[in-house]
Amino acid sequence: MLELAILGFLYDVPLHGYELRKRITALTGHVRPVAESTLYPAIKRLEKSGLLVRATEPGAVAAPRHVLRLTEEGRSELRRRLAEPAQRDITDENHWFTVLAFLRHLDDSAAQAAVLRRRLAFLQEPTSFFYDGDRPVRAEDLDDPFRRGVLTIARATSRAELTWLRDTLDSLGG
What is the 8-class DSSP label of residue 53? Predict the structure, then answer.
């Protein structure tokens, strides 16, 4: 997820590490804050892989800063990861939001639709946060108002996302 976010943000515009960290934190920070000890090793891995380059530019008011830019290989890698997201990127909501934030960079509407259909199929599977044996428990089956709240909120969120997915797939022709 972190590497995908790095590639996605750098696809649009070169950034220095601090600005990149702010943007990633804005996207995922409430759930998974991005520490420098995590971000900079990921940047180094991507740089070593030839997916991004670092250039030193003079700072506006301070010392020179390192600006990160995607290479053509980095742009291709982002598009590949978007076209073929891992299953966890489809099923984990935070990973999914990261994919969704950059899916516009995949400029083939059929490929975009294929990714959205995978998410749609996942959301249409019967599931719950709570089970009675193998049977998913519905909000209406619970006396516990807090667990009922979890399921009620999740159902409303899923319905909104299903509506959006179907509408978007229709607009993409897929």
Answer: E
Q: Which two tokens stand for residue 139?
A: 């909000």
Locate tokens 């996207």: which residue? 27
Question: Do the Cβ atoms of 113 and 104 come closer than 8 Å?
Answer: no
For the chain, first and last CA: distance in Å?
A: 26
Q: Could you report the per-residue pLDDT of 41-83, keeping only the tens digit for each?
A: 999 999 999 999 999 877 666 677 789 999 999 999 999 999 9
Q: What is the pTM of this model?
A: 0.86
With CA atoms as reference, report the closest residue to 81 among 167, 5, 168. 5
Q: From CA 3, how far away is CA 59, in angstroms rounded?
A: 26
* H/E segment holding residue 136: strand 135-136
DSSP helix/strand/coil, 63: coil
